[in-house]
Amino acid sequence: MKDFTYYNPTRIEFGMGKEKNIGKYIAEYGVSKVLIVYGSERIKKSGLFDTIAKSLSDNGINFEQLGGVQSNPLLSKVYEGIQLAKTKDLEAVLAVGGGSVLDSSKAIAAGAAYEGDVWDFFTYKAVPDRALKIFDIMTLAATGSEMNNYAVVTKDETKQKLSLAGAATYPTVSVINPELQTSVTKEYLVYSAADIFAHSLDMYLSATYLPEFIAGHVENILKTVMRTTEILLVDENNLEARGEFAWAATQALNFTTFCGVENNRFDTHFIEHTLSAEYNIAHGAGLSIIVPAWMKWQKNNLPERFEQFAKNIFNIEGADAGIEALKQWYSKIGTPVTLKEGNIPEEDIPALVEKLSAVASMWGAESLYTKEMITTVLENAK
C-alpha cells in the first residue's frame, strides 16, 4: 500500500430507534439551538418530525425548521437556510433526509460561519474551514454524505452543479436506522444502488495503483449492493438487507476505499453532475447512464482491472463482457442506461461538451477532461 493519512471525525449511531436519541447526541456537544433541514412533508406525516422535536425539547434544545429541499438541491434554498441560521443565531444544523438534504445542510453550516458568498466554496475561491456543527438522520442511503465532507449543490441561474469540501463539513454525529429507509420507493432504491456503484467504480477503475485489500473491500461493497438491492425490490421491509445496503453506501464514500490508493479520479461524477443540473434527472439515474459509457472509454487504460471486475463481480471473462453485464443488471433493476432512456436529447451532446469543458477549465483539468474524451463518453451513452 502507498503511504496515506486517514481522518474521519464522524460518529455513527447505527440501529433501530436511535433517532429518538438525537437530542441527547446533540446536547453532548453543547448545542442548544439547531436548524432542522428536510425535504418533503413526508417526515411530518410519518411522525418522524414529532419524534425528533420531542427528543430535542427533552434535552433543552430549541429549533427552527427549513423544509422543501429537492433532489439535486439548489443554491437558493441554501441561501434561505444561511439567512435563517444567521438571523436566529443558530449553533448547528440537523439534516433529516437523504444526500440532497445533508448536502444542503453542509452548505448552510459552512455559509452561516462565513462572511462572504457560500458559492465561493464551490468555485474554489475559499475553503470551508469553519462551520456550524452538522448532525443528520438518514432516511435514504446512497451518497455516503453521512460520513464524508462533500456537498454538491446546483446554482439555480447558471445550472452549475459543483461541490465543496473542507475539514469543517464532516457531520459530527450521523444516525442510520434502517427502519427509517423502508419507505424509499423502488425507483429511488435502484438509483441509490447506481450511485453507490459509481462511488466505488470511479476509484476502482481509475486508480493506477490499487492494493489487493482495497480492491476486495470495493468488490464486497459492489456485491453487497447487488445482493441487497435484489432482496429489497421484492421485500422492502427486510431490515437485514436494508441495514447492509445502508452501511455499504456509507463505506463506498467514507474514504476507506481510498487508503493506500494512487491516482484515483471521479470521472463519472464530473460528467453526470452537468446532466442532472441541466435535465434534473436523478443523480443515480444519470450515473447508470454514464458509468458504462465511461467504462467503454476507460477500459484500455487499465485492461487487467476491468478483467478483474468482470471475473470477481459477474464471474465472466473479458472487459467488454463485464461492462455489458453491468448494463444488463442496471436494466434488470430498472435504472436507465442510455441518454434516450434518461430523456436526454442526443442532439444536446455538443452543448453538453462545451459546458463540461468549461467546468474542466475551472478545475484546471483540461488535459484530463478533453473535449474528445467527453464527446466519446457521451456518444457511448447513446
UniProtKB/TrEMBL annotation:
InterPro entries: ADH_Fe/GldA (IPR001670), ADH_Fe_C (IPR056798), BDH-like (IPR044731)
GO cellular component entries: cytosol
Residue ranges constituting the Alcohol dehydrogenase iron-type/glycerol dehydrogenase GldA domain according to the UniProt record: 9-178
Name of a matching Pfam family: ADH_Fe_C
Limits of the Fe-containing alcohol dehydrogenase-like C-terminal domain: 190-380
UniProt family annotation: Belongs to the iron-containing alcohol dehydrogenase family.
This protein's name: Uncharacterized protein
Organism: Bacteroides luti
Taxonomic lineage from the root: Bacteria, Pseudomonadati, Bacteroidota, Bacteroidia, Bacteroidales
